[in-house]
């Protein structure tokens, strides 16, 4: 049975689809049985593709993206082993939606898996920024991947 991970940001067009693409790439390269997707806390962009600047940042780094935005639903907690929020606001929103303590425990911040993140665990929203902002988000996402892959490996062993 695959390990199931989802990333959640605000509109599901910038940060979470970026993280989804990066994890999918690294999980495939590592030969891990992982299902990866993403969604947003809001419905503003449901049905849209990822932001063109997200797609461009991913392509520059050698990642693929084929994404359609959707909104996270409370019924989905049972689907996932790990639900990764991109900032503290998303973390609060998701935990408030969780039906029980077991579901709340699945919700973590992506940057918890970056040992160099320090106390700043938010991935900033690049939506109102430019190329450098999207590239910074990609750097933050990539920095969390080794720790996240270790977490997934541990979860797969425990299953």
Automatic annotation (TrEMBL):
Give the Gene Ontology MF terms in alphabetical order: protein tyrosine phosphatase activity
SUPFAM superfamilies named among the record's database cross-references: Phosphotyrosine protein phosphatases I
Enzyme Commission no: 3.1.3.48
Q: Which residues form the Phosphotyrosine protein phosphatase I domain?
A: 3-151
**Keyword match Hydrolase:** yes
Task: Tell whether Coiled coil is among the UniProt keywords.
Answer: no
Q: Which UniProt keywords apply?
A: Hydrolase, Protein phosphatase
The family note in this entry says:
Belongs to the low molecular weight phosphotyrosine protein phosphatase family.
PANTHER family named among the record's database cross-references: LOW MOLECULAR WEIGHT PHOSPHOTYROSINE PROTEIN PHOSPHATASE, LOW MOLECULAR WEIGHT PROTEIN TYROSINE PHOSPHATASE
- Kindly provide the name given to this protein in its UniProt entry: protein-tyrosine-phosphatase
What species is given as this protein's source?
Actinomadura sediminis
């Amino acid at each position: 049975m695959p390990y199931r991970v989802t990333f959640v940001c605000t509109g599901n067009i910038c940060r979470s689809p970026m993280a989804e693409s990066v994890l999918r790439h690294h999980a495939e390269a590592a030969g891990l049985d992982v299902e990866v997707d993403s969604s947003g806390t809001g419905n503003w962009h449901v049905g849209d593709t990822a932001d063109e600047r997200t797609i461009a940042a991913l392509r520059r780094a050698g990642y693929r993206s084929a994404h359609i935005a959707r909104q996270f639903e409370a019924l989905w907690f049972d689907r996932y082993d790990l639900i990764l929020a991109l900032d503290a606001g998303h973390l609060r929103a998701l935990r408030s939606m969780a039906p029980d303590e077991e579901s709340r425990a699945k919700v973590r911040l992506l940057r918890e898996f970056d040992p160099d993140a320090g106390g700043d665990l938010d991935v900033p929203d690049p939506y109102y920024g430019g190329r450098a902002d999207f590239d910074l988000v990609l750097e933050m996402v990539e920095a969390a991947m080794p720790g996240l892959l270790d977490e997934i490996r541990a979860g797969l062993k425990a299953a």
